[in-house]
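User: Hello! I'm new to structural biology and keep hearing that structure can be predicted from sequence alone. Could you demonstrate with Putative translation initiation factor eIF5? Please show me the input and the output so I can see what each looks like.

Assistant: Of course. The first part below is the input, the amino acid sequence of Putative translation initiation factor eIF5. The second part is the output, the predicted structure written as tokens.
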Amino acid sequence: MATVNIRRDVDDKFYRYKMPLLQTKIEGRGNGIKTVVPNMEDVARALNRPPTYPTKFFGYELGAQTSEANERYIVNGAHQADRLRELLDAFIDKFVLCPSCKNPETEIIISGKSGREDLTRDCKACGAQTPLDMRHKLITYIIKNPPKAKEKGTKKGKRGGMTAEANVGGPMVFDAATNGDDEDGPDTPPADNGVPTRGTDIDAALGRSDPILEDPDQAEVVSKKLSKLDVDDDDDDDADSPYSVLGAWLEDNKSAEDTEIIGKVKDLGIVGKHKVLVEVGHHLFTNSVATEVPKRTALLQVLCTSEKHQKSLLGGFERLLAYSPECDSLLSSGTTSKILMTLYQDDILDEEVVRNWGTHVSKKYVEKDKSKKVRKSAEAFLKWLDEADDESDDE
Ligand SMILES: [Zn+2]
């Protein structure tokens, strides 16, 4: 069956949130004419809402009676599929999407005393809790028919092994190998499947478990590559280094066009260098970084060409957040998770790279305690990533 993006305004076939395209069937005639939505169950499941919510929403918006019998969801009157799809978009916008990060993985939470309830959307992605429009008629219906508690809870109970909580809440690993050279390692695929392997982190960081290094010839190639990289990149602390120049220029030109920035990188002769990303992450953005990053995704996609580039970008953002005079309020506002969500959804960061970053405190870019704080502030996103994974495993 045809699927569409839950956000139909997102024209990206790799957008990860899909739902079946809403189907309609007109039945009966005269006063008894009605529109059946045969796949309402499936659509609602994709939205993590009971199927009665969007059905009732259609009814309120169209001023029509609705009914449900034997899993058939019906709106009285003859309604065109396009019209109902538009109304579904409106429902998604009002009752599903997080207004803060536009992610659809939210839950409706009802709090407060009977008669004075408060309804909020609780976002699994960025952690934001945002109020629903209490004036909408659907609110009363939701209060009387609250979402079934914790279907997700049973899923969580079923899964074994390392849970999101264990990963995120557990002690973070201080990566002893992180003295500046591990991240300059070869561009080989990650040594594991993203499951943090405590105890063997140093091996993993050094890529020892990667078969490529067991082949002596290959190992030689890799080490030559490494030493070459060390030579090009050793000069980055120098104030005259092209990276420092780029950083200073970005500070002064935060509103530069993407093409100007690329031009500057070319002028400095550092096209393709991963350390460009450290400067971009650190100096191009301000305290409003969470809203600025979505406007720079095209630039970041162009610049971020390998895993190493991704790590450098994360390092740059770490510096930005940790050295901001408003560090504490930034870190407690969900900013880190919002940045990561944007970068992840726009295919700038790979899942494995973010996971490894999230579980490995490093003093490469900022002091160890700051590095730890920044990672802690990304908890909502990292947890969401684990849960999203578990759900696809279940299917
Ligand atoms: Zn959100």
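User: So the tokens describe the shape?

Assistant: Right, they're a compact way of writing down the 3D structure. Reading them back into a model, for example: Residues 98, 100-101, 103, 123, 125-126, 128 surround zinc ion (CB under 6 Å).
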